[in-house]
Amino acid sequence: MAEMSRLGEGVRAYWLIAGMWVRSSMTYRTSFVVTMFGNLLMTGLDFVGILLMFSQVDSLGGWGLPEIAFLYGLSVTSFGIADLVLGSMDVLGARIRDGSFDILLVRPAPVLAQIGADRFAVRRLGRITQGTVVLVWALASVDVEWSAAKVLLVPVMVVSGAAIFCAVFVAGAAFQIFAQDASEVQNAFTYGGTTLLQYPPTVFGKDFVRGVTFMLPLAFVNWVPASYVLGRPYPLDLPQWAAFAPPLVAVACGALGGLAWRAGLGSYRSTGS
């Protein structure tokens, strides 16, 4: 009961802080619209690069454009949701250096909720919108024999993928506490991870695919379940039920991310600044 009460307190604190930043950003509506449109345009350039690539080739690693678009849409939409919710985690290192992290520790609200909602930016909806548009186009274009299981797996992939990325954000924030910064390391696994997942696993070496499947299981964001949906063999010899494992992987990653955060917070010693 105490854990549930603590969780409810954290969610409430998160929404209060996020709501404050939303109201602040909506004060200047023209600036908000321009910024969101710019964010949408910048994220869309990634897919433009893929389109330019396919203007010269018919397939990439044996995958056609609609299939790559399917991977892209899943990766970008899932990451966009996580980035909207916890994208401010990468400022933790700066807070530690300037001493403002200590202020969060004495406030009557969970520190994770305060960090996650800090500078909540609605403009990040641009990434989600762009990823969703590509995903919808891909779903209408891919040659798939749809079944009830495959149809249900698509939203499960998006939600589970977002949860996995959220866990990576939290674990990265914990690492920043230990390292006294290292936000670039976190970005390598978050922003770098979503870029990696936009391309099929067949273009990477098997050892690398094993690492992304079993060590840092980003493959369960889209590679493994998408291979099942598209009827393509996965480079590793995984059982068929692995395609339905993303929710379990998300729960495991969330638990590990939570443990890492607690360990990091417990080891923190003020910089004295």
Structural features, described:
With 273 residues, the chain is mainly alpha-helical. Helix content is 71%, strand content 0%. It is built from 12 helices and no strands. The protein has helices spanning 2-25, 29-54, 65-86, 92-98, 101-106, 111-117, 125-141, 148-179, 183-196, 206-215, 223-230, 246-267. Helix 8 (148-179) runs antiparallel to helix 9 (183-196). The protein starts with a helix and ends in a 6-residue tail after the last helix.
- Helix percentage: over 70%
The helix-strand sequence is HHHHHHHHHHHH
Unreliable stretches (pLDDT < 50, length at least 5) are: none
Total E-strand runs: 0
Q: The biggest beta sheet, please?
A: none
By helix and strand content, what is the structural category?
mainly alpha
What's the end-to-end separation, in Å? 37 Å
Total helices: the number is: 12
- Principal-axis shape: globular
Tell me the radius of gyration: 20 Å
Mean pLDDT: 88
**Percent of sequence in beta strands:** under 5%
